[in-house]
Amino acid sequence: MFLSANNIVELTGLLLAIVFLINDKNKIWRAQILFLIAVCIIELTGRYYRIIIQQNNSWIYNLYLLLETGFVSAVFYTFFEDYIKGRLYIIAVVLLFIIVYTKEVVSHGITKFNVNSDTLLSVHFCICSLLYYYQLLKSEGYEQLSKLPSFWWVNGVFFFYFGSVACDLFFYQLFSIPNNLRSDIYAILNLLLYSCWSYSFLCRYQQRKRLS
């Protein structure tokens, strides 16, 4: 079967994003649809290279790191509307990421995966998530978390990238366990991400309905 479990989860997330966000007037929420389209194309292309024509696909995911950095950082930037320090942090780390990414590409080329850039990105998004939670705790306004779109969107990011950091830290140890178990770990992380994101799309849709 060409489609993996991850592909099915991502395509489902895209479908739900289209259903719930297509008429959203907020550009960053509507841009989620374009981002997920790009994710699905990249993942399917990467799988095609690896399985069908059996060629190196690392360069595809290196390019994806740039898209991932830009979009997820942009979403956090909008969530930190009243948190200037959070926004400054995002700008600083994105600049650092560009430096690390460039050094890796110059060092070993685009065809070898940028592990350091990927790890930096995962840590960055974990910290962004913690800063969001801190901002939420410090807020004087009342928010019903079960219906707050940004909260569930950030939850998905935190679960996925915290798990990714853990996998990066134990990268070589993971090779001592069966390959299917390693795949299952990443599949669970992906499922957590898209489950939280899909629920955030629903919450955003309901939020728009309440305000209209």
UniProtKB/TrEMBL annotation:
Name under which the protein is recorded: Uncharacterized protein
Highest taxon, organism lineage: Bacteria
Residues spanning the membrane: 7-23, 29-49, 61-80, 86-106, 118-136, 151-172, 184-202
Native species: Mucilaginibacter rigui
This protein's UniProt keywords: Membrane, Transmembrane, Transmembrane helix
